[in-house]
Amino acid sequence: MPNTSARPKHGRRARRRRRVDPARDQLVSSSLESAQQCLLNQDYGTAFVHYLLVLNLAPVFKDFAQDSFRFTLFKWAEELDSVGRIQELFDCYEQALEIFPADEVILNSMGEHLFRMGFRDEAAGHFHKALKLKPDYPEARENFYRVANWLVERWHFLMLNDHGRNRKYQQAIQKAVQNGCNTVLDIGTGTGILGMCAKKAGAAEVYACELSKTMYELACEVVAANGMEGSIKILHKKSLEMEVPTDIPHRVSLVVTETVDAGLFGEGIIESLIHAWHHLLLPPKRGEGEFREDCTTGRVIPAGATVFCMAVECLEIRRHHRLCAAEVGGLSMAAARELRSPVSCSSEQDDSTEPYTTERLSRLPGGYRELTEPFTALTIDFNNVLELEGLSSREVREIRLPVTLEGELDALAVWFQLHLDEENSLSTGPQEDTCWEQAIYPVHSAMSFVLKPRDELIVEVSCRDAYLRLCCVAVLRDGHKIYLDERVDFQNSGQPIPNPNPEVELCSALACLQTSQSDSEDFCMLECSEMALLNNQDYHQSFCIALNKLISGLKVKSQNLNTGGTAMSAVDSRLLYVLDVSEGFSLLSLIAAHQGQVKAYSSVEKTKQQNVLRRLAHSNNISEQHLEFWLNHTEDERGVLQRPSREKLWSAIILDCVETCGLVRQKLMEKASLARFLLEEGGHIFPEKIVVYGMLVESDTLLLESAVQGREPTLGFNIAPFINQFTVPVHVFLDFSTLECRHLSEALELFVLDLMDANANYTEREVMVEAISGGRITAIPFWYQIHLDQNISVSTLSRNSHWKQAAVVLQEPLQVQARDWIRLAVKLHKSTISISAHIDNTPVQMD
Ligand code: 44T
Most CB atoms closer than 10 Å: which of 179, 497, 544, 841? Predict the structure, then answer.
């Protein structure tokens, strides 16, 4: 605790400036004393109020009281947090930052609270500010790296590195401005690039708006650095909140925007353009014959888009959205059929579901098979406001996709062509060599469905809540309709036609049967990664064997003890206790309970998911008393690892070590030491050890995603140094198996984390590795071997893993020759790995 009793040393300057006010001095000094006293008494709330009073009345005490004030704030915030007084907590931080606006520790700490509460953008902003104030502040740096992806999403780098896209936008803007569009609004300006293009092309007035605070600030910096500070007006606003003349003096003749996501409409372009046409743009030109633009009509770049869709078979998509396994870790999964991913186009949309997810099809492990030709699902003219307005009210349209290849129907893949103008267009298709991802609409139907050539897949296309929705409804086979989806309403679609093929009819009947039983209320949602985990048979099988080994051993031990005449009651001696503290949905407690004589505690929190586990317990003959939900017993998260005192210590504690994104979980080692303390003799932590492996690679792809590359200015503008401040050294969510890269070394062991033995751990390690071929080391992808016990382990790199990989991207690529030796310095600080690499060909001393 900081020293609270020292007397303040008044600076000479401060003393000279102070006006004499005895009453105020008296108040300040008594408040300061009270603050210190309260702090000693651990009455942090009152201490905080006193400090606030002192520092507001007498800023001269700031230096003196800063440490104690921070300490008080953090303690008080902890208390407020634990009792859920969140608004007050943030009020306190705001008051503190009014007094110490440049205090990096307070900023960082407020960021941590914001992050925990789910305000990621705001949290990231605080870490960034803290880091700007003190670049070598490791806590803020680490926090910043964890969230930088939210602040400035990685696609900004990809887009700025996509020279083709940049040039096409520039050409289209140039042409429009030269043709008379001389007042321009850039909606969602990002780094300011399109606005700057318009200015450079000679537009008289350029306005830009950006809703993200960080991106807005970045755009201001970039525009100033390019000497256009006075000539582009940037607003920190959503375009929908803009109006004439408050924000812009009059309507503009050109709107440029690239507010499109992989599913085209996900960034709200329809709504933004409808609003722009009504409030911000000049009226569109009327006749088809009017070719020349002038300053009295308005138009939009991009002018429109064509959306394509195609049915695909893809195991990688399937295992992330549907339960594929009938048995997992020895448990029958028949009772868990209602599990599904939150990505669904069903009519009952709510906040927890999304109509599509995104993937780069060309990078999916295991690839994909095209079951149909690409088909035009929709065309849209952004210059036609009636068409934009009509989208949402447009009737659901049915399209039919002729099947060209036999395969399981897993998803519809969607991409589009963005027509910037008559000449320039961009495509986001899976075959294109661009940075774009495709939108994936997974098929959730109750059972797998195999499409056959000559079938026709019937897809419903609609646009609700400004999202494009695609839904596979049925398959036309030999003139008969087989329904796929559960929400088909027979009154609208007509009764299914009797089918001469009994197999097909049975399938159809089954699909409908499933439907009527499970209305959406009964669905239980799992995150895509949780679904993939559930489908990971090896993982569960490994746990099953390891738990079985441990439990059988402990049972024998307790029997021996019992026959030896200890005082244990018969019941106690038979029950072993297992705690699963996995994050999210986990079957491991159930697998433990399935071993018999085990009382297992699950950390699953959501009621629906708990119910699924209960149902699975029931259907697998596991007594209800042998499965408990840990969090139903604890008010406080910190109590998670402490069992009710009346029970024995844990026989096994299962820790979740690696996040899906490929990083070690935060606070893992702290949790492990707490867990060790709570184990009974002979008890075990699962896993007992994790070994980090890595490989030296040359990968341009990773570079393109991490920073604006090259020394050439982007379209002649100086952007790279500004956006590159948001470069992070560790990339997450990689698929190492499909990453375009050259391997420059064998896989090597980088680091070991021992969860059972604290003394075995270290925080820094040097490893030597030989280059197997020459090249530029740009990155070191890494993954984990998770050792459950001495013989059983699972790898996060395995084909059916639900984990992705992460990679350290070197600050500067390292040129190496084949057979060079590279010295890697690997550090682990609070579960964040950092690696630096140097060539070191000095001969190794052999013992
Ligand atoms: N994603 C493309 C591009 N905004 C998404 O805050 C990269 C997709 C993509 N500002 C893979 C790769 C790629 N008013 O900074 C953002 C956002 C802002 C607005 C003001 C509005 N109405 C909006 C709407 C959005 O605009 C910026 C760009 S939007 C996202 C672009 C090729 N998958």
Answer: 544
Q: Of 107, 102, 104, 112, which Cα lies nearest the Cα of 135?
A: 104
Which residue CA neighbors atom 19 of ligand 1 most closely?
A: 188
Indicate if ligand 1 lies below 6 Å from the C-beta of 196.
Answer: no
Determine whether the shortest distance from the Cβ of 155 to ligand 1 is under 6 A: yes
What is the CB-side half-sphere exposure of residue 386 using CA atoms within 13 A? Answer: 1
For the stretch 724-773, pLDDT in tens is 988 888 999 999 999 999 999 999 999 999 999 988 888 899 999 999 99
127 φ, ψ (degrees, to nearest 5): -65, -40
Pocket-testing residue among 156, 160, 214, 267, ligand 1, by greatest number of atoms within 8 A of Cβ: 267
Between strands 299-301 and 254-257, the pairing is: parallel
Q: State which H helix or E strand residue 400 sits in.
A: strand 397-402
**Whose C-alpha lies nearest to ligand 1, atom 7?**
155
Q: Is the CB of 215 under 6 A from ligand 1?
A: yes
User: Does ligand 1 lie within 6 Å of residue 158's CB atom?
Assistant: yes
Task: Measure the CA angle with vertex 62, ends 59 and 64; round to 5°.
Answer: 135
Q: What crossing angle do the helices spanning 138-151 and 104-116 adopt, rounded to 10°?
A: 50
How, if at all, do strands 598-602 and 627-629 pair?
Answer: parallel
Protein residue closest via CA to atom 26 of ligand 1: 188
The reply to whether ligand 1 has any atom less than 6 angstroms from the CB of 211 is yes
pLDDT of residue 191: 95
Q: With pLDDT > 70 as the criterion, what percentage of the chain qualifies?
A: 87
- Residue 289 pLDDT greater than 60, yes or no: no
Angle formed by the axes of helices 104-116 and 62-82, to 10°? 10
Segment (H or E) for 270:
helix 269-279
pTM, rounded to two decimals: 0.84
Q: What is d(CA 336, CA 343) in angstroms, rounded to the nearest whole number?
A: 18
Q: State which of 240, 243, 259 you would mutate to test the pocket of ligand 1, scoring each by most atoms of that ligand within 8 A of its C-beta.
A: 259
182 burial via Cβ count (<10 Å: 0-12, 13-18, 19+): buried
Task: Give, in degrees to the nearest 5, the angle at Cα 66 between 65 and 69.
Answer: 80
Answer yes or no: is pLDDT of 644 > 90: no
Q: Does residue 185 line the site of ligand 1, with CB under 6 A?
A: no
pLDDT at 685 over 60: yes
349-358, 672-681, 702-711: least confident range: 349-358
- Residue 516 pLDDT grade (very low, low, confident, very high; cuts 50, 70, 90): very low
Q: Is 210 in the pocket of ligand 1 (CB under 6 A)?
A: yes
Length, in residues, of the chain? 847
Question: Among 29-38, 486-495, 678-687, which stretch is predicted with the lowest mean pLDDT?
Answer: 486-495
CA angle 296, 298, 302 (to 5 degrees): 155
Query: What is the full DSSP assignment across 563-577?
Result: HTT-S--HHHHH-EE
- Residue 256 Cα to ligand 1 midpoint, Å, equals 12
pLDDT at 56 over 70: yes
Please compute the mean of the pLDDT values over residues 220-247 and round it to a whole number: 96
